[in-house]
Amino acid sequence: MTDIRIRKVEGSYVIRAGGAVLGESKDVLELSEGKRAPVLYFPRNDIAMAFLDRSETATHCPHKGDASYFSIITKSKTIADAAWSYETPIANVERIKEYLAFADSDEVAIEKF
């Protein structure tokens, strides 16, 4: 069994893509899984869901459940599968239900402010 820890992080975070702010939140969760880099999860209520389009992509993690993916629609392009959500997570990680994670990349910035 992989060691998974979920904790609320201090401070406020913003997510930007294509020059637009996708969301700001003070209720961000950090999920640490084994030796992988921690991943930040943002409440859906703090995200401008109009910028996200559910994609066909889905994956399964034996430790978290089935993930659904979203592409980010910006003025100039679509960033494919840039966010994901565990909509029915496995019991030990149910805190991430109704949260979204974003791939931190050259096109998507996650910043603490």
TrEMBL record:
Q: Which residues form the DUF427 domain?
A: 15-104
Task: Please give the InterPro entries that the UniProt record associates with this protein.
Answer: DUF427, DUF427_sf
Q: Pfam families from the xrefs?
A: NTP_transf_9
From the Swiss-Prot or TrEMBL record, give the protein name: DUF427 domain-containing protein
